[in-house]
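User: Batch of two.

Assistant: Item 1 of 2:
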Amino acid sequence: MSDLLFYIGCAMIICAIAGAILLRWYLVTYTKRLLHCLDEMIAGKSDLTIGEEEELLMAKVEVKLRQLYEVLRQEKEQTQRDRESLESTISDISHQVKTPITNIRIYQGLLSRDNLPLEHRRKFLRQLESQVDRLDALMESMIRMSRIEVGIVQVNPVLRTVSPLIEEAIYQVALKAKEKQIQIKVKCAAHLKAIFDKKWTLEALGNILENGIKYTSAGGAVMVTANTTDFFVKIRIEDTGKGIREAHYTKIFKRFYREEDVQQEEGIGLGLFLAQEIIRQQNGYIDVKSQLGKGSAFSVYLPAEA
């Protein structure tokens, strides 16, 4: 009996030693793999080595490490993109503000002359007022742009009737259209509904309509139509203006972009950029078709009723 107990005790000791050795091997292996995975993360490798045996604890931890790494990497990339965007915005703002400020200083210097004729003084005062208005419009547009880009402005798209939106947008530009004798025609079913934020979508449509009137010659026309597609409500704003080169379709939606042949027109080149950002934040999009000398058609796509 004592011999049996002795052998049992020896067996238990051997098993304990073997278990301790196995546990140490497992911990060492686990630590090495964990340290290797961390080294790859520190080195910035985009493809981390992960164990294929997903049921093992080691592989599960490595998978979580990979997920953590991806989150941190994406945040770093987003921070870099935000920084580049901010630098680009600051550069654009500096360039755009410089011109009106320079002009204001020039007119201020001219107006300070004692022997300046009254007729010239009045002319320079009008030019000075024009530059101040331009600077004010620029600052207002940039404030709206920055609020949208950084997410301070939160759109609240809900199901609404489209026709009142179009009517109000047209009302905003009706005076300018009347001054140029431009006829605005509308075709929109009274029951048509889409999902949109009224305030911001109104600004987007207003910007597009204002551009259409601005670049359409006196006596021209602007046609606004609305209809449903498979998943969207399409609001098409078509003018009989100067048209846009196809190569410039994407450029016109960039901040401060203005074509060379329209530099004499008032504006700062933010209207279409803001319109695109507003519609994009509502899961919609804008496309454009145009023919030089015949006009342009901007189509705004808003999510349709589910």
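Item 2 of 2:
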Amino acid sequence: MVWSRGGLGNRSVLFVVFLGCLLLPVVYLITPLLSFADYAIPLWVRCSGVAVMIAALGLFWRAHRDLDRNWSVTLEIRDGHELVTTGIYRRIRHPMYAAIWLFSLAQAMLLENWVAGPAAVASFAVLYARRVPHEERMMRDYFGAAYDAYAANTGRLFPKLRMRRS
């Protein structure tokens, strides 16, 4: 059995992310079509962008590794799916989304173009706003109280700060 959410709307948003994260940057890099929107980025911003991109790729790899067979490009839970609460998921509920936010920021820091640079941030913002509420509802529906307890102890994109009591 497969629990699924999203349907055509989810696929449409994934296509928008494809445009912003891949197609527009490739068009910018290999054609002059977007040259009307070029500008100069200081070297320190580009170097910082490389560091952010490396962090994004590392976080994305770690999230995939920790999810293993529980990952799906679409919003679905298959037979045998488990609630992953170990590895990076011990502290962050959505490390892949955090990684894509970092990737999007890095793209804006690396591509010297007002269209291609921020396109990933804009397109991923649409996906994130639409998808995360559906995904969390699906997880609550399937895993119940276990997911509620997990969500109460983890941050969505960043580790939750804990206040020490004396």
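DSSP finds five helices and two strands in the chain.
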